Amino acid sequence: MTKLYVGNLPFTATEEAVNALFAQHGTVERVSMITDRETGRPRGFAFVEMPNADASRAMQALNGADFDGRPLRVNEAQDRERSGGGNRGGGSRRY
């Protein structure tokens, strides 16, 4: 299974619309639209999980493709370590 990052989505995009777009290229296991924690509004990106071969096909076909007037950015999602604290700096800083 491959998780794809789908960026530059219009804020009007729905899970159903993203699912339908990716389903043209294979089996979609799950779509996760990312929303703002405080307002609940879409943040303009999502994650789509698909079998490996389907994900590769979808990535090639949809990266840069127009979706409601916006060019999509589609690539393999990189796992991000989650920290327990609020540190967004990502490491030590030297001044």
Describe this structure in words.
There is one protein chain. With 95 residues, the chain is of the alpha+beta class. The chain has one domain (8-76): 2-Layer Sandwich (Alpha-Beta Plaits). 21% of the residues lie in helices and 31% in strands. The protein has helices spanning 15-23, 52-62; strands spanning 2-7, 30-35, 42-50, 66-67, 70-71, 73-76. The chain has a four-stranded antiparallel beta sheet. A two-stranded antiparallel ribbon has the order 4-5.
Distance between the termini: 42 Å
User: How many structural domains?
Assistant: 1
Q: What fraction, in percent, of the residue positions are helical?
A: 10-25%
Q: Based on helices, strands and strand pairing, what is the structural class?
A: alpha+beta
The low-pLDDT segments are none
CATH architecture: 2-Layer Sandwich
Number of helices: 2
Shape: globular
CATH superfamily caption: RRM (RNA recognition motif) domain
The CATH topology is what?
Alpha-Beta Plaits
The CATH class designation is Alpha Beta
Reading side by side through the largest sheet, how are the strands ordered? 2-3-1-6
Task: Write a short abstract of this structure.
The chain is α+β, with helices and mostly antiparallel strands. It has two helices and six strands; from the N terminus they run βαββαβββ. The chain has helices spanning 15-23, 52-62, and strands at 2-7, 30-35, 42-50, 66-67, 70-71, 73-76.
Topology:
Elements: E1 2-7, H1 15-23, E2 30-35, E3 42-50, H2 52-62, E4 66-67, E5 70-71, E6 73-76
Antiparallel strand pairs: 1-3, 1-6, 2-3, 4-5
